[in-house]
Every structure is written in C-alpha cells, then in structure tokens.
Amino acid sequence: MATKMAPAEATPEEQPKKKGKKKLMLIILVVVIAAVAAYFLVLKKPPKTAKGTKAAVTLPSISYTMPVITTNLDDGHIVQAQMLLELAPGDTKAEVVKDLPQLNNAAILSFGGMGYSELLPTSGRTQAAVTLTNAFNTVLHTGPKPWDTVQSILFASFIVQ
To answer: 156: helix, coil or strand?
Structure first.
C-alpha cells in the first residue's frame, strides 16, 4: 500500500506545474493567433496585377427584369419574351426605368425584323439577344452621361408561335 500512496502524494505537487504550463501555452497560442490576424488585416498588401498596379475592386453587376413583351414577327408569327438585362458593374436601374418605353419600342422593332425560323434554333435566340443588346445600348446611350450599359440579355421566357 505504501507504493500506491507515494504516487498519489507526488501528484498534488506536479499539478501546479501542469496548470502553469497550460496557461503559458494558452497565452502563446492567443498571441500567435492575434499576430496572424493582424498580419492579414493590417499588414498584408492587396494583390497586384501583371502591370504592377493594384487590383481594381470589382463591383457587382445589376440586373433588371423587363416586363413580358409580345409582338409580331416579320413572317406573321408572334414572339413572347421576358428579358433580364445585365447592366455593367456600377450602373443603376434608373436610366433603364426612365427609358423603358423606348426600350420596349426597340425590342418590338428588333423582333419585327426577325422571323419564326430565325428565332426557333438556339443560335437564333442568341443572335437576337446580341441584336437587342446593341439596340438597347443605342437607346440608353442618348442624353447626358452617366449612361447605363447593357452587358448581356438573358431570356427568362421565350415563346414563338
């Protein structure tokens, strides 16, 4: 029994040493984490581009969903489409909303020059989106600057009959 008691008596003397070591390790860990955080938040410089200049901050693009438009095609068929306009980063929807009647007119005139067989394949709808993008930018780029710019058009729905 004496051999069993000896380790039990030695344990209370070693416990303060273990607690001190744990506190010291915890303090060192906190200091290291704080140093790494400070490096990433304060000292690290933003990445540079290939030319050596600072990288530009990219703004999110804005999108505007146009109301559904239904119009006649050149060959007597009809098209019904709803378009999502993706505007250039930094643009607002203000000019698009202001020029909505002119944009609808540009869409009607553009679709009026197209036919059913032209819009039926996917490549035709892709070409129609490019044509509409150019027509919309022509409308939006009139009047005083700043102008909104349509980068691309996505069709939310597209029906030809």
So the answer is: strand
Supply the pTM of this predicted model.
0.62
CA gap 43, 24 in Å, rounded: 27
Query: How distant, in Å, are the alpha carbons of 15, 75, 105, 141 from that of 85?
Result: 69, 27, 15, 15
Enumerate residue ranges in the chain where pLDDT < 70. 1-19, 40-59
CB 119 within 8 A of CB 125: yes
- Per the listing, tokens 């944009």 go with 103
Burial classification of residue 124, based on how many CB atoms lie within 10 Å of its CB (0-12 exposed, 13-18 middle, 19 or more buried): middle
The secondary structure of residue 128, as a DSSP letter, is: H
For position 15, what pLDDT does the model report? Answer: 58
Burial of 104 (0-12, 13-18, 19+ CB in 10 A): middle
Q: What is the pLDDT of residue 114?
A: 94
C-alpha span between 71 and 110 (Å, rounded)? 10
Phi and psi of 65, rounded to 5°? -95, 115
Instruction: Record the tokens describing residue 35, joined without a space.
Output: 């140093």
